[in-house]
């Protein structure tokens, strides 16, 4: 079975660390794709914040 797991954080290093820890639990053959995205959002007070997202597409061991 194909599944996805998303790692989202305002600090890209934390999302990356969590994604790498999850990937370490998988066999290399289970990993289908890893996607990364980042955006900067500005609020009405002209303050900007960054949000990073990593999406891991993987096969479960049973599938």
Automatic annotation (TrEMBL):
Domain of life: Bacteria
One Pfam family this sequence matches: Spore_Cse60
Protein's name in the database: Sporulation protein Cse60
């Amino acid at each position: 079975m194909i599944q996805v797991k998303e790692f989202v954080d305002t600090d890209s290093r934390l999302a990356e660390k969590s994604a790498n820890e999850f990937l370490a639990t998988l066999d290399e053959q289970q990993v289908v794709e890893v996607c990364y995205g980042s955006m900067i959002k500005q609020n009405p007070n002209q303050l900007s914040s960054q949000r990073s997202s990593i999406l891991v597409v993987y096969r479960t061991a049973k599938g």
